[in-house]
Specification:
single chain; OB fold (Dihydrolipoamide Acetyltransferase, E2P); 23% helix; globular; 14 strands; alpha+beta; 2 domains; four-stranded mixed β-sheet
């Protein structure tokens, strides 16, 4: 595929990989508004000028990820491949330029999307989805620490060393997972986890502001996603499947990002 221009719209919260240490799943749109997934990307080990933000245009040398059957999945030519930021799309005119790229195809029926994902000739694994109703947003507790055996193995392999020989500090593990409870246009209810990096970062900021009170921090995150995004914005979900669950789960999708311009009360005339 060689040098490819991608509008970054998704960065998931970092996870530990037994092969690559800490990784981020990145996804976005090519210039023709089709989806593309970039994985693996050792994002926090990249130089400052390579650490792209959401809605940055990047250029990177990509190849098809041979270890991933999903058609949208590509990877940088190598872990050291340079990622060049070449532009950014801001929120001017209520996200108008972002909408032109991101909202070319929108799903409203979750069953239809899941059926399409299971078809081997289509195998959709990234999508924009518009929920009909947001019922709730909540948190569920999870294991607070990274797996000790995996951490020890990665330490033994020196995968936590930086290029300069220093020690790389692994990102903190979230003590909970955040979920949306929503309905699609057929009234089908779903509960789906959100793995957006921004959600995790918001939690840590709220926790610091609340001086370590986890319940107040969770309430602050809920206020942002439920009271603000769900009630006052034209909320869309960026959905993605995981490779391990794509072909076996009843619903292989998780929320990997949100798209939330203001609600437009009047259709544009021109």
């Amino acid at each position: 595929m060689a040098l490819t221009k991608v509008l970054i719209t998704v960065k998931t919260y970092p996870t530990l990989s037994a092969k690559y240490d800490e990784l981020v799943c990145t996804a976005g749109f090519k210039e023709d508004s089709t989806w593309i997934r970039l994985y693996p990307v050792p994002f926090r080990k990249k130089s400052c000028n390579e650490q792209y933000k959401k809605y940055d245009w990047i250029e990177v040398d990509l190849v098809k990820n041979a270890g991933d059957f999903r058609p949208e999945s590509y990877r940088p030519h190598s872990l050291d491949t340079e990622i060049k930021v070449v532009g950014h799309i801001n929120t001017t005119n209520n996200w108008d330029e972002r909408k032109k790229i991101c909202l070319g195809k929108i799903y409203f029926n979750l069953t239809e999307l899941i059926t399409e994902a299971r078809k081997r000739d289509i195998c959709t694994s990234l999508a924009v989805f518009k929920p009909t109703e947001i019922v709730d947003f909540y948190a569920e507790p999870v294991e607070r620490n990274w797996d000790k055996d995996k951490l020890e193995k990665l330490n033994q392999l020196n995968l936590f060393e930086t290029a300069k020989g220093g020690k790389f500090k692994v990102v903190k593990k979230l003590p909970c997972k955040f979920k949306f409870h929503f309905k699609d246009n057929q009234g089908t209810e779903s509960r789906m986890m959100i793995e957006d990096w921004e959600t995790g970062q918001l939690y840590w900021k709220c926790l610091a502001r609340r001086e370590g009170d986890e319940q107040k921090a969770i309430a602050d995150v809920r206020k942002k996603y439920f009271d603000d995004f769900a009630k006052t914005k034209d909320l869309h979900f960026f959905l993605g499947t995981t490779q391990a669950h794509h072909q076996v789960s009843l619903n292989p999708f998780i929320i990997i990002g949100t798209f939330q311009p203001k609600i437009e009360l009047q259709t544009k005339l021109f």
